Amino acid sequence: MSFQTLGLSQPVLQALALKDYKDATPIQTQAIPTVLTGRDLLGIAQTGTGKTAAFMLPSIDRLRQSDRRAGPRACRMLVLAPTRELASQIAESARAYSRFAQIKVATVFGGTSIGKNRQDVARGVDVLVATPGRLIDLIEQRYLTLNEVEILVLDEADQMLDLGFIHALKQIVRLLPARRQTLFFSATMPKAIKELADKYLTDPAQVSVAPSSTTVERVEQYVSFVQQNEKQALLTMMLRAGFSERGSMDRVLIFSRTKHGADRIVKLLAGSGIPANAIHGNKSQPQRERALAEFKGGKAKILVATDIAARGIDVSGVSHVINFELPNVSEQYVHRIGRTARAGAAGVAIAYCAPDERAYLKGIEKLTRQQIEIVPLPANFTVEASRIKATRTAAPEPSREERREEERGQRRFPPQRAQRGRGRYASAVKPMGDSRRRAAGR
Length: 442
Hints:
By secondary structure, the chain is of the alpha/beta class. The chain folds into 2 domains: 3-208, Rossmann fold; 219-439, Rossmann fold (3-Layer(aba) Sandwich), CATH 3.40.50. Helix content is 40%, strand content 15%.
């Protein structure tokens, strides 16, 4: 459906024309008319389906029509996002969409100067995009108030809960006017998210473009069963040779469960002569922005990331997503592979599954209601893996901090017991002892 038919104003349509946007996506077609009426909205949509425009375009029109201006240290529309990257991208889109609407947009998130944040909100802003932590810092220091908020948007609400923002959300919502429009967007709808939506929304309209927790239809999904300590060899071989006939690996996003694991992958790839960057919570904001800019611009074709960065990586042309380690939270798999096959393009997702990760694979397939196609290891894998191991510097054993990071994830999201005996998830090896875990880099 054309944007022209959705009731948007001419200034917004002009901005869309500059970006060469003509046809609305399904989530935009369903959400925009409802948001324009001022009704609360619960939106369920996969990543990469155009959620930002679905809530930002009609909200810009509503802000224009109310003909108000925010007072000092106040905002009229508050958008909460779980990560810095996502907040930055939402704000970038908001500025583009409001180019002819005279709407002031600002961002506040960690890793940036809080003094600069204070200056940005000092005279008031129309649209404020924020992460919960930095927003609360500004409120507690009395540099920002929320009593003028007309529209609240919770974007990627499921990840906010995964990252432990529930208490921050409750604190923020208590400071908002009771009379407001609330727009709630999530890629998945577990029970905790449904309860949160019921608490914050009033008689909401619900729009959904795909069943909860389904994966992007145009993503081809594959899994290879491999020992934990052989994953690096498989990754190196795959990046060098490409993934069979399934398209060239033009831009590859690799996911690790931990920050230290991501850095270790980058170092080991560098030892094999393959350049890559990492992006995760231990990186400074300039480092994260530089890594993402190089990936977007094509200067670096490989980016290694953790789940905390998954929702904020909106890069067109990601040809492959590699799950170097399967997520111990099944829903994260949906968000990871949603980084490819964006804007109607095709994409490939490959998972490396070690024997001790088969319970995670089982959980993912149960959540997504589909079996992932098994791809056998290359015919010459054993010989080539031995050669790669012999020619590269051995990976250091994980530090105490690395082991603690992994253990925290295991305690918070304990895996189910893998099936034994015959079947898809049967393990052909004995449980790992301490020495084998160390050898596998765990």
